[in-house]
Amino acid sequence: MDLKGKRVSVVGLGERTGPAVIEFLQQKGAKVFVSEASTSSPFQGHLSGVEIEFGGHSSRVYEDKDLIVVSPGVPSDIPVLKEAFQAGVPAWSEVELAFRFSQARFIAVTGTNGKSTVASLLGLYLSNLDQKVVVAGNIGVPLISKVTPLEKDDFVVAEVSSFQLELIEKFRPEIALILNVAPDHLNRHKNMDDYFAIKKKIFQNQGEDDLLVLNYDNFWTRSLEGEKTLPKKIWYSLEKKVNGFYLDGKNLFDGLQQKPLLETGEIKIPGKHNLGNVLVAAGIASFLGVTREDLARETSQFKGLPHTMELAGEISGVKIINDSKGTNPEATVSAIKGLPGNKVLIAGGQDRGLDLKEMGRAISREKIRALILTGENREKVKQAVLQEGYQEIFLVGSLQEAVRVAWEKAQKGDWILFSPGAASWDRYRNFAERGNLFKRLITELEGRGENGTPGN
Known about the structure:
Elements: E1 7-11, H1 17-27, E2 31-36, E3 51-54, E4 67-70, H2 79-86, E5 91-93, H3 94-100, E6 105-110, H4 115-126, E7 133-137, E8 155-159, H5 162-165, E9 175-178, H6 186-189, H7 192-200, E10 211-215, H8 219-222, E11 232-237, E12 244-248, E13 251-254, E14 259-263, H9 272-287, H10 292-301, E15 310-315, E16 318-322, H11 329-338, E17 343-347, H12 357-365, E18 368-373, H13 378-386, E19 393-395, H14 399-409, E20 415-418, H15 431-447
Parallel strand pairs: 1-2, 1-4, 2-3, 4-5, 6-8, 6-9, 7-8, 9-10, 10-11, 11-12, 16-20, 17-18, 17-20, 18-19
Antiparallel strand pairs: 12-13, 13-14, 15-16
């Protein structure tokens, strides 16, 4: 599409995607109209040459418009977009826009948990090839700001959320990954079937020469085993030898090329679930030509991402983990099961009505010395845990108090694990703000000379 002179609406300004899309559209010569539900934006003073409406979405979004680009925070079923569809005006996500204007090779990663880790690892691994590599998307860097200068043999590793997949049309990654599916974002997607249907859109345009990579160990992704798809399906698993990549003793193994990828001892990031993340990333990188030596070097140097099973400190023999990005119960269950030995868990956050049964069961069975709950849903988590017979529960009013109580309950050799199992929006702008506060509190704990025996 030639955008010069085209009239394009951007729905949802946001902090990253909206401004990046506006800049791209203006560079292409489009006439831009912005519609934002909030009454103001910190970016409004930095935008020139665009019309903006605040406080809601009017029919100006689609009247006399050639295209609508929708930010990921805006649901695709709001009234003004329904009216736009009826009027025949195309509405795309930013992912679709970026794909249409890039000639690079796309590897798209989606899933409820682990997307950022896998995308980051893939970016590191593929950087050892001759082609340029860009990692962008839901990971925090808008695709549209990075992908258009790339050549046809370069790689885009796109972390793609369900929100970004809602409004794709021709988006076709060469390799698509669905890492897992678990209850999340059900306040937007209504139920698990709808949520999974959105995730499956990642491969809806793939052809027989493309690859679809799926997690055999996840119920929802394994359900695609018998489904006919145009792309070739390959699997990865920590539990079974599959047609793809799997754990074989202490080796991560590439069953496609019949060769070892890595030894488990070379992986520095904690948690069993991270074995799976490294496995699938290393397997795909090996398939694309990255050597065993390069995989080993990059893996041994990778310490993980901020707020994702991040080692926040070690005080008097107690290791402290910041997993603020654990924004759903499934992520917290993986974090709990992935750490050996006794743990003191800090959890709780925004109440989005998610099922807490599995989280309660894991807390009751996985050596949790004490559970400290804070946040909007703390009473609901408490009830879910009590139903499993666990009673070492402490409700507190703030994260500051949670850290204090956790330190009092921990003993030498324990882990203090901050994995909320809930979104951050009850009290924080995002998981990063929440995680940064936690790390600051741990730094203060260290600074106060808390070097005696924990638990006293």
